[in-house]
C-alpha cells in the first residue's frame, strides 16, 4: 500500500484495537481499495474522513444475565456497535454465536457502512450480537435470553436511531422475542427491528432477500461472462437463512445445487440437493445437516465443512461465515473450473482466497455487494412500517432485484473508473465509500 495517509490510519486502527484480527482484515481491505480515491480527492484527507470512518460513533457493551431451564444463572455479553450514521439510522444485524466478540462485531459493522450505502437507501451502518449460543437451548431459554438482551439494548435503539435485524443465530423466533420485550418496555409499536413476523409488521420476501439477492447479483456477473445459471452446478456453504434461499433462487434459474453444509460437515448429492428436506431439517426441526443422508439415500455426508470447496462446480456461493474459504480452497475451486463466486456471507473468503479469484479473473462478488439484498429489504420493511402498509411479495422482490442490478452496476462502473475493470472488490468499496465520505463532509466534523 503506497499512500502515506492510508498507512497512518491503518496503523492507528491496529494500535487502538490490538488483537482484533477480523476487524483489521476488513479495514485493510477497504482502505487498500480506496488509495486511488484518496489520491484523487485530497479534500477527504483535509476533512479527516478516514480517521473518522474507521472509528465507531458509539460502542455499547453490556451484561446479559438470564436463568436457564435448570434454574442456574447464566451470563453472556451483549454488544452493539453504532458505526456510522452519515446516511441514516444505524442499521445492521444481531448475531448470536459463541464466537462473537468486539473484533467480529466491529468488522461486520464497518462493512455494513459501505453495504448500506450501496443499496441506495437511507441507512447508516451498525452491528450487534452476543456470545450466547442458541443451539441446544429450549424456546423458553431463548426467550429469557432475548428479553434480557433487549432489557438493556432498548435504551440505545429506536425506529429513527438504530434498527437491528437478524444474522447468524437470530431468525424470526429471536426477533419476535426481542420485539415483544422492546414494545413492553417502551410501550410503543413501531419498526425498531426488521425481519419481523408477517403478522406484526414484517415484510414479505425479507426471509428470502439475502439469498435471492446474492443470486441476482451473481446472475449479473454471469451475464457479463455471456452466460447464466441455466445448467450450472452450484456449491453453497451453510444451510441457514441465506444458504437456503440462495439455493432456492439458483434452482429456479436452472442451476443444480449439489452440496450444502453446516458447521459440522457437508452433504454432496450429484442428483441435486432436495431443498424441502433441508428446510424441514433446518427451519422446522433445527437438526444437523448430517441427518439429510438418512432421508436422501443418493447423498453422501462428509465430516468437516472446508472440504465442500473441493467439489467441482461452476458457481460457488459461500453463505456460512467469515473466513470459511481459504487460499487452498480457492485454488481448488479455480482448478476445478469454477467461473463465479458470489458471497452470501460476510467476508467468507480470506484475503489470500480473494487474490486467487482476482488473479484467475473469475467473476467474484464480495459480500458487501453480493449480500446487500438482506439489508435492502430491511430498508423496504422500514418504509412499509412508516407508511403502515404491506407490499406484495412480487413488489418487494422486484424492488430487490432492481437494487441488486444497481449495486452490481455501481461496483462495476467504479472499478472501471478507477482503472481496475472487473475488480468488484475495489468497485464496491469505492462506490460505497464515496457517498458516505461526501455526506460526512457535508455534515461537518462530528
Ligand atoms: P444462520 O444462522 O441462519 O445460518 C448460518 C449457517 O452457517 C448455518 O448453516 C451454520 O451452521 C453455518 N455456520 C455458522 N457459523 C459457522 C462456522 N463458524 N463454521 C462453519 N459454518 C458455520 O445465519 P445466516 O444464514 O443469516 O447468515 C449466514 C451469513 O450470511 C453470515 O455471514 C451473515 O453475516 C451473512 N448475512 C446474513 C444476512 C441475513 O439477512 N440473514 C444478511 C447479510 C449477510 P451451524 O448451524 O452448524 O452453526
Descriptive overview:
The chain is of the alpha/beta class and 446 residues long. 49% of the residues lie in helices and 15% in strands. A hairpin with a 5-residue loop joins strand 1 (58-67) and strand 2. Helix 2 packs parallel to helix 5 (102-118), helix 8 (206-224) packs across helix 9 (241-252) and helix 9 (241-252) runs antiparallel to helix 10 (275-284). The two termini are 28 Å apart. The mean pLDDT is 97. The structure holds NADPH dihydro-nicotinamide-adenine-dinucleotide phosphate (NDP). Residues 166-169, 210, 238-243, 262-264, 305, 319-321, 324, 344-346, 371, 374 line the site of NADPH dihydro-nicotinamide-adenine-dinucleotide phosphate (NDP). NADPH dihydro-nicotinamide-adenine-dinucleotide phosphate (NDP) is lined by residues 166-169, 210, 238-243, 262-264, 305, 319-321, 324, 344-346, 371, 374.
Amino acid at each position: 500500500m503506497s499512500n502515506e495517509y492510508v498507512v497512518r490510519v491503518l496503523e492507528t486502527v491496529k494500535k487502538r484495537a490490538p488483537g482484533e484480527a477480523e476487524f483489521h482484515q476488513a479495514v485493510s481491505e477497504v482502505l487498500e481499495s480506496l488509495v486511488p480515491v484518496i489520491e484523487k480527492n485530497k479534500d477527504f484527507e483535509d476533512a479527516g474522513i478516514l480517521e473518522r470512518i474507521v472509528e465507531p460513533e458509539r460502542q455499547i457493551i453490556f451484561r446479559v444475565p438470564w436463568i436457564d431451564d435448570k434454574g442456574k444463572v447464566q451470563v453472556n455479553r451483549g454488544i452493539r456497535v453504532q458505526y456510522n450514521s452519515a446516511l441514516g439510522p444505524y442499521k445492521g444485524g444481531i448475531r448470536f454465536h459463541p464466537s462473537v466478540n468486539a473484533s467480529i462485531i466491529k468488522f461486520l459493522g464497518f462493512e455494513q457502512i459501505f453495504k448500506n450505502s450501496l443499496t441506495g437507501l437511507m441507512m447508516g451502518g451498525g452491528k450487534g450480537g452476543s456470545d450466547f449460543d442458541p443451539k441446544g437451548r429450549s424456546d423458553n431459554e431463548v426467550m429469557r435470553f432475548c428479553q434480557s438482551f433487549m432489557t438493556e439494548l432498548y435504551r440505545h435503539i429506536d425506529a429513527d436511531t438504530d434498527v437491528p435485524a437478524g444474522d447468524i443465530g437470530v431468525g424470526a423466533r429471536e426477533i419476535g422475542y426481542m420485539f415483544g420485550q422492546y414494545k413492553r418496555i417502551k410501550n410503543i409499536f413501531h419498526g425498531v427491528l426488521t425481519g419481523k413476523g408477517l403478522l406484526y409488521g414484517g415484510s414479505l420476501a425479507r426471509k428470502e432477500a439475502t439469498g435471492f439477492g446474492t443470486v441476482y447479483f451473481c446472475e449479473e456477473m454471469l451475464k457479463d461472462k455471456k452466460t447464466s445459471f441455466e445448467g450450472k452446478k452450484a456449491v453453497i456453504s451453510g444451510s441457514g437463512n441465506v444458504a437456503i434461499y440462495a439455493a432456492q433462487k439458483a434452482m429456479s434459474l436452472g442451476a443444480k445445487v449439489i452440496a450444502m453444509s453446516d458447521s459440522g460437515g457437508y452433504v454432496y448429492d450429484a442428483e441435486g440437493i432436495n431443498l424441502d428436506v433441508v428446510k424441514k431439517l433446518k427451519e422446522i426441526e433445527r437438526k444437523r445437516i448430517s441427518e439429510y443422508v438418512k432421508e436422501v439415500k443418493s447423498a453422501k455426508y462428509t465430516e468437516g465443512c472446508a472440504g465442500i470447496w473441493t467439489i467441482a462446480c461452476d458457481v460457488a456461493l459461500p453463505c456460512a461465515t467469515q473466513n470459511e474459504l481459504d487460499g487452498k480452497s480457492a485454488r481448488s475451486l479455480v482448478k476445478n473450473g469454477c467461473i463465479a463466486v458470489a458471497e452470501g456471507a460476510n467476508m467468507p473468503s480470506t484475503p489470500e482466497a480473494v487474490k486467487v479469484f482476482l488473479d484467475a479473473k473469475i467473476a467474484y462478488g464480495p459480500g458487501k455487494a453480493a449480500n446487500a439484498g438482506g439489508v435492502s429489504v430491511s430498508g423496504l420493511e422500514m418504509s412499509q412500517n412508516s407508511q403502515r402498509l404491506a407490499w406484495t411479495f412480487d413488489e418487494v422482490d422486484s424492488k430487490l432485484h432492481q437494487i441488486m442490478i444497481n449495486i452490481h452496476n455501481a461496483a462495476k462502473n467504479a472499478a472501471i473508473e478507477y482503472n481496475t475493470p472487473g475488480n468488484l472488490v475495489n468497485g464496491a468499496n469505492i462506490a460505497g465509500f464515496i457517498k458516505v465520505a461526501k455526506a460526512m463532509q457535508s455534515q461537518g466534523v462530528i
